[in-house]
């Protein structure tokens, strides 16, 4: 007797129809509600592309210019919509080009399904043309992966793929389909997956732990919240805001948690971590109860672990049991989806204000404002600073835009200074720090939220890593706004070279092409700003453009991002200069 | 914290690729696997991995959680040597001429509770199941006679306490 290892929805489905494996793939995507997918065709995935041709009125395939771009676009789409992003590629180099995006989605918990073609099953292991062991390669960077060699496996495996990608702590799933499985036929009958016996996406709530957490919060004199993307992934933003407001606890965010709480909220005290705000970093080591919500204590957040919040009782709200005690010991671990656990917590906590404690955050902010922020935003001489550009974007967007940032100095500045009213508005590569992420991710983000303004903020280095995706923008006419902050350097590495390697600028200076001419070649409206006096007008023109727009801003070459917790230092040893 | 021998037991589905998914968890953390075996378990269609590593308890706790996080792993546990009944099996292949010429070999076999598996005119094969030091001790005794081949299995182990795996699986069948 066959053992049942997964459950599928019991639906009175229509009679099975006989289709090819390739057609079954498309029908599965439609069943899962996929409207847009990103990919690049090639030999081993051609049968599926042939079906995409037939179904082009029902499903929108976006041809990116590189498979890496397809994954980042799928990620951008997933991050703004909460839906599963889908990327498709052929075997061999097509599949290996997905690797960076998959690794990025894994570490940033982004729901994504990647479908790759594979050589015919009779050729597996023969070093056939464009054969690569993508299952072996993707194993450590996927939540789950599977190689389909028989057409009849397609509906069940794809149902499982979508279920696994979106449930619990989301992540990327790769499904490799041999060419013969795409050609062979099967009786198609789709049932969504609703359970896998070896997989428990959401741990059961232990009410006692929530009660202990509430007691600790109620008794705390100097409590502090650090929240991450778990609040967004759990769809718990409103509930979270209620918890913050009722408890009166100052709340700081990780860069993936950014936008879960409006920027202007009085209890939003800013960013933690290496380039985070002064107050939340210093006060992490002064609080008596640290309430971590849907975050994983990344080393860029904690700095030296042996000097991180040692004085505090740590409460950790988390969906993934493997994150408990991984980096920071949790005195009170609270497992579960934060949407469930915070709901219980909200009833148990007592209203409080913590005014004196909150004043400490304000005092620290004032120190940071006087030393850093004031100059960042109000410089009158010298070249334009990165923060001024972000500030102009805020002025135009009024906090309603989606900001997609790349990786480096501009990313830290964008996260520090962007203002957000709505959740799922900050899209950036956090854990993996993937340069080249922003341009393709912005394409996916704009397609996911066509009614919102999407602005990609990119450095001159990262821009050139996926610059070919301008072709995708040109072809699809997706109205993405692109801002390149050009300092002629790989700025973050240069900053480290200046501070820690005696200014030996090894291979960080960039001799750049004329970006305007390149944009022109793709027929994208463009403008270059070098003078402060033109900045406001240029940003306004970009934001008001109905079509895609490229804005290059030549910024100060050797600007440093401060505050900074030097690598290996304690968060309370954060430097202001 | 000091390093100790821990035996990790993982109950899993029987799927291609799970071995590499599990071994990658150790590889990523630069941890050497002392031994690894996979076989059917007491539950129909469920596999059991037995992995021996020398790590700190803090490390093994984190590893077990990472293993359990894998989609096709049903449950994982870790145990110390004293909580387990464990054995290894070794095979020794020896030239038959030595066996006939020197009767002391026959004494070693008897003393160590080993078993002769096969005898041919050219070679014979001895099997010994026991603890590592026991199979090592027989190895040292037979080595002077010229071991033609030697091989030893990974550790297989059962726990002294109950494994609640069947309950976990039953729950799935009834709750869905």
Automatic annotation (TrEMBL), chain A:
It comes from Salegentibacter echinorum. Binds 1 Mg(2+) ion per subunit. It is an enzyme of class 2 (transferase). Keywords: Amino-acid biosynthesis, Branched-chain amino acid biosynthesis, Magnesium, Metal-binding, Thiamine pyrophosphate, Transferase. Residues 20-135 form the Thiamine pyrophosphate enzyme N-terminal TPP-binding domain. The keyword GTP-binding does not apply. CDD domains: TPP_AHAS (cd02015), TPP_PYR_POX_like (cd07035). NCBIfam families: acolac_lg. One of its GO terms (cellular component) is acetolactate synthase complex. GO terms for molecular function: acetolactate synthase activity; flavin adenine dinucleotide binding; magnesium ion binding; thiamine pyrophosphate binding. Pfam families: TPP_enzyme_C (PF02775), TPP_enzyme_M (PF00205), TPP_enzyme_N (PF02776). The keyword Magnesium applies. GO terms for biological process: isoleucine biosynthetic process; L-valine biosynthetic process. Residues 210-345 form the Thiamine pyrophosphate enzyme central domain. It catalyses: 2 pyruvate + H(+) = (2S)-2-acetolactate + CO2. This is Acetolactate synthase. InterPro entries: Acetolactate_synth_lsu, AHAS_TPP, DHS-like_NAD/FAD-binding_dom, THDP-binding, Thiamin_PyroP_enz_cen_dom, Thiamin_PyroP_enz_TPP-bd_dom, TPP-bd_CS, TPP_enz. Residues 406-553 form the Thiamine pyrophosphate enzyme TPP-binding domain. Its EC number is 2.2.1.6. Pathway: Amino-acid biosynthesis; L-isoleucine biosynthesis; L-isoleucine from 2-oxobutanoate: step 1/4; Amino-acid biosynthesis; L-valine biosynthesis; L-valine from pyruvate: step 1/4.
Automatic annotation (TrEMBL), chain B:
GO terms for molecular function: acetolactate synthase activity; acetolactate synthase regulator activity. It holds the Pfam family ALS_ss_C. One of its GO terms (cellular component) is cytosol. Keywords: Amino-acid biosynthesis, Branched-chain amino acid biosynthesis, Transferase. It catalyses: 2 pyruvate + H(+) = (2S)-2-acetolactate + CO2. Pathway: Amino-acid biosynthesis; L-isoleucine biosynthesis; L-isoleucine from 2-oxobutanoate: step 1/4; Amino-acid biosynthesis; L-valine biosynthesis; L-valine from pyruvate: step 1/4. Residues 7-81 form the ACT domain. One of its GO terms (biological process) is isoleucine biosynthetic process. Its EC number is 2.2.1.6. It is an enzyme of class 2 (transferase). InterPro entries: Acetalactate_synth_ssu, Acetolactate_synth/TF_NikR_C, Acetolactate_synth_ssu_C, ACT-like_dom_sf, ACT_dom, AHAS_ACT, AHAS_small-like_ACT. Signal peptide: none annotated. Transmembrane segments: none annotated. Dimer of large and small chains. Belongs to the acetolactate synthase small subunit family. Catalyzes the conversion of 2 pyruvate molecules into acetolactate in the first common step of the biosynthetic pathway of the branched-amino acids such as leucine, isoleucine, and valine. This is Acetolactate synthase small subunit.
